[in-house]
């Protein structure tokens, strides 16, 4: 009779065995990052390895370049654990100083060419979940249930007009059978290496991409009275964004940024139209609705004031990641057993978003952070760099780095969470509704 303790010991032994391949895999993925919705090569690496491990099903092209692998355990069990990794890189010129830093440039991407880097650490996610697949694959005879590995396309948002990502994966039906009974994932970030950071409630904010097109009347730069200049409206919209916060109670978490402006003009031409792109974040759906309504009023009103017209679109809306107290309580013993109680810490919520929220919402589960940097948490839980280390470098920064010592920890966490869920030691139920 195999006891849970036997399974945990097997995981540790297998993780140790797979550690060199895990690091090599991470570096290989890191060297060849691909932008959101273009993860062709990464998906191929993933699918090939899942087949080599002996997964019963490997579904490719799911919601873009997503891959879903299904591994049926050798013992009876109704539970289905879903482990999720995202695969995309970012349009960032890497400055991590790693020997395996990316040199990739994507010349074809809309709006590009862009240098590409794994500046959000999704290379670590791919390597960890794929290695977890190897570990659980080697233990399959003893697994009482099913493992589903989800490798997702376009977490950072596909080009406008494309639909890849978590929602497209769910809509495709590829996760209907077997339907996960728990979704789990870990995002790497600037917490101390090996630390699991969690937040109950809205751990990640909800998000929406906003696009505002301000339509004027084009004319010569020296004769503004003969046209309608969209620029003053654009200026008003941008400075008005800060005022929108004042419509939301001060203790609510919202954020709004215009990150990109596109015009079609020239220094001596008043353009016919200007398009603004930005991102809205809010911890609750109600605040997101209010923020969107405020944005629409601001854009339409500002345009009208200068004789222009604004069209406002909210795209790629993603709900917040909501970890419930019950789910966190259910997983806490496993997390504490795997990394030690003092390495499981409560952290403030993030204003970043992650469309893993759709999986967590659909199946119940948890999305947590795993520290990969030379930092420490002071007694009030503020992050600070440690002496002599590589510093604190946020995700999406060109210098973002990850200590590879955290990767085997990530695999141990994924594998132990999976086993404990299949054993019925971690139960989650999807949110009502
Ligand atoms: Zn990111
Ligand atoms: Zn990310």
Structure description:
The protein has 433 residues and is an alpha+beta fold. It folds into two domains: 4-203 and 320-422, 3-Layer(aba) Sandwich (Aminopeptidase); 206-318, 2-Layer Sandwich (Alpha-Beta Plaits), CATH 3.30.70.360. The protein is built from nine helices and 20 strands. The protein has helices spanning 4-31, 40-53, 122-138, 166-171, 231-244, 285-305, 325-339, 357-363, 406-422; strands at 57-62, 66-72, 80-86, 105-106, 114-115, 146-152, 182-192, 196-198, 201-204, 206-215, 219-220, 254-263, 269-270, 273-282, 309-318, 321-323, 344-346, 365-373, 375-377, 383-385. Strand 1 and strand 2 form a beta hairpin. Helix 1 (4-31) crosses helix 9 and helix 3 (122-138) crosses helix 9. The radius of gyration is 23 Å and the shape is elongated. The mean pLDDT is 96. It binds zinc ion (ZN) (2 copies). One zinc ion is lined by residues 120, 156, 395-396.
């Amino acid at each position: 009779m195999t006891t849970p303790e036997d399974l945990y010991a097997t995981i540790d032994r297998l993780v140790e065995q797979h550690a060199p391949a895990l690091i090599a895999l991470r570096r290989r993925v890191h060297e060849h990052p691909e932008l959101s919705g273009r993860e062709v090569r990464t998906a191929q690496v993933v699918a090939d390895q899942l087949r080599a491990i002996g997964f019963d099903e490997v579904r490719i092209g799911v919601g873009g370049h997503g891959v879903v692998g299904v591994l049926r355990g050798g013992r009876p069990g109704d539970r289905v654990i879903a482990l999720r990794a995202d695969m995309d890189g970012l349009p960032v010129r890497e400055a991590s100083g790693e020997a395996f830093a990316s040199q990739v440039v994507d010349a074809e991407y809309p709006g590009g060419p862009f240098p590409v880097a794994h500046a959000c650490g999704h290379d670590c996610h791919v390597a960890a979940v794929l290695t977890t697949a190897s570990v659980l694959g080697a233990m399959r005879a003893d697994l009482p249930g099913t493992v589903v590995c989800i490798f997702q396309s376009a977490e950072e948002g596909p080009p406008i007009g494309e639909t890849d990502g978590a929602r497209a994966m769910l809509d495709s039906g590829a996760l209907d059978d077997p339907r996960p009974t728990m979704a789990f994932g870990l995002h790497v970030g600037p917490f101390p290496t090996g630390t699991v950071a969690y937040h109950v409630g809205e751990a990640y904010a909800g998000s929406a991409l906003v696009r505002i097109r301000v339509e004027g009347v084009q004319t010569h730069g020296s004769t503004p009275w003969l046209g309608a200049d969209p620029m003053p409206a654009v200026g008003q919209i941008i400075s008005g964004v800060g005022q929108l916060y004042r419509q939301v109670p001060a203790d609510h978490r919202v954020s709004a940024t215009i990150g990109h402006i596109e015009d079609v003009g020239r220094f001596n031409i008043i353009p016919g139209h200007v398009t603004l792109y930005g991102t809205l974040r809010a911890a609750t759906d109600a605040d997101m609705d209010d923020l969107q309504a405020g944005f629409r009023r601001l854009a339409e009103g500002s345009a009208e004031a200068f004789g222009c017209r604004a069209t406002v679109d909210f795209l790629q809306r993603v709900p917040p990641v909501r970890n419930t107290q019950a789910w966190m309580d259910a997983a806490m013993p496993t997390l504490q057993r795997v990394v030690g109680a003092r390495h499981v810490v409560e952290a403030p919520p993030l204003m970043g978003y992650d469309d893993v929220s759709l999986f967590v919402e659909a199946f119940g589960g948890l999305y947590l952070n795993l520290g990969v940097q030379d930092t420490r948490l002071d007694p009030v839980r503020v992050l600070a760099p440690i002496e002599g280390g590589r510093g604190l470098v946020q995700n999406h920064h060109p210098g973002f780095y990850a200590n590879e010592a955290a990767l085997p920890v990530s695999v141990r966490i994924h594998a132990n969470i999976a086993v404990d869920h299949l054993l019925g030691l971690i139960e989650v139920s999807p949110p009502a509704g």
